[in-house]
Design goal:
Shape: elongated
Number of helices: 4
């Protein structure tokens, strides 16, 4: 059995990918085919969210278990979780977080189940994927943190900087210091 999964983006109306993937494939297999189909490098902590029909997030399937200690809560990792663990239970909506810094996602919908098996494949590719990592706009950060977007020097009351005012001897830095 194979799932036909449609991927869309709120950021790009002309972007769409349809992927055909075996039910026994892992979320890591799905992750890899999505990244490849979008031309994204495999260097981010991507994750999947299992969603209900109203797109409310439920369980998360992470790239790796990043917990500090064992907790009572179940953790699902991509390499150890088969698609059937969720998709055979009536789940049809998923989110794929491809930009963990800005929580940007693709919406995935299971469109069909088909007989057969084979390697994951993109059966339809339309449009260009949005840029994977959104450029950080520092003015947005200042506004989000309650600042007014003004210069940092103004925020901290620093009128000017004079390197002669720094007492380097007070730092006790020597050539023998190991880092």
């Amino acid at each position: 059995m194979q799932y036909l999964i449609r991927i869309i983006s709120d950021e790009s109306e002309d972007f769409r990918r349809d992927i055909l993937i075996d039910e026994d494939a892992t979320f890591l297999d799905l992750n890899n085919v999505i990244l490849q189909s979008c031309g994204y490098p495999d260097d981010q902590m991507t994750s999947f969210y299992i969603c209900n029909d109203e797109w409310e997030r439920g369980e998360q399937v992470t790239r790796e278990d990043v917990r500090d200690s064992a907790e009572d809560q179940d953790i699902f990792t991509m390499a150890d979780t088969q698609l059937t663990e969720f998709l055979d239970n009536g789940v049809t909506h998923l989110e794929f977080c491809f930009d963990p810094f800005s929580d940007r996602v693709f919406s995935l919908v299971v469109r069909d189940e088909r007989s057969g098996s084979g390697d994951p494949e993109v059966v339809k590719s339309v449009g260009d994927a949005p840029q994977q990592i959104k450029d950080l706009d520092l003015s947005d950060l200042a506004i989000a943190t309650g600042g007014n977007g003004s210069d940092f020097a103004e925020d901290f009351g620093i009128e000017s900087f004079n390197s002669d005012e720094i007492d380097l001897e007070g730092f006790e830095i020597s050539d023998d210091t190991q880092f």
